[in-house]
Write a structure and sequence with these properties.
single chain; alpha+beta; minor pseudopilin epsh fold; four-stranded antiparallel beta sheet; 1 helix; 9 strands
Length: 189
């Protein structure tokens, strides 16, 4: 017996192909915003972890070396030349206590711009740790403050790192006063 051979071609019809493309398009439309949100969340978590890591390192170095360690906004990564924390930051042994790094002062940490808006009303461009681990502002007064991490141009609640006067950072959803910290939407954003 002979087997029958079919002259019929195999493949997808135009209607089947268009239906498959439409289903794939709808799936991507639903998935992409979720992936973008996931990516933004990861970027913010990275920036928060970088600042908290610098705080822990600077505090540890201050206590270990029995010396003042400063953390300041830095655009270039060598000096305290940043206009805001969004430019990046450095930590260094501040032997003269002026919150300005000279060539002789040892650089402890350097973090480039985090790619998001990072603001602090209490520590506008710098703070330091004393040899006992306490945090202080530019005038040297023991001080607590907070850092708000925001997406550029987004009007949403910020993620907040609270730096306590004891020198220990704490991650929070609200500011020290318990209020929700809103992200800036003006030119600084």
């Amino acid at each position: 017996m002979r087997s029958r051979t079919s002259n019929r071609q195999r493949g997808f019809t135009l209607g089947e192909t268009l239906t498959a493309l439409a289903v794939a398009g709808i799936g991507l439309t639903l998935a992409v915003p979720g992936l973008q949100s996931f990516s933004r969340g990861n970027s913010r978590a990275l920036a928060v972890n970088q600042l908290v890591g610098t705080m822990h390192l600077a505090r540890s170095e201050a206590v270990m070396r029995n010396a003042r360690v400063a953390v300041c906004a830095s655009a270039g990564g060598e000096r305290c030349d940043g206009h805001s924390w969004s430019d990046g930051w450095i930590a260094f042994l501040d032997s003269d206590g002026n919150l300005e790094r000279s060539a002789a002062e040892v650089l402890v940490d350097r973090v480039p711009a985090p790619g998001m808006v990072l603001v602090s009303a209490q520590f506008a461009t710098g703070f330091s740790y004393a040899a006992d681990g306490h945090a202080s502002d530019a005038s040297g007064d023991i001080h607590a403050g907070e850092f708000a991490f925001c997406e550029a141009g987004a009007d949403n609640a910020a993620r907040v790192v609270i730096l306590r006067a004891s020198g220990l950072p704490t991650l929070a959803a609200r500011g020290r006063d318990g209020a929700v910290v809103r992200c800036p939407t003006g030119p600084e954003a």
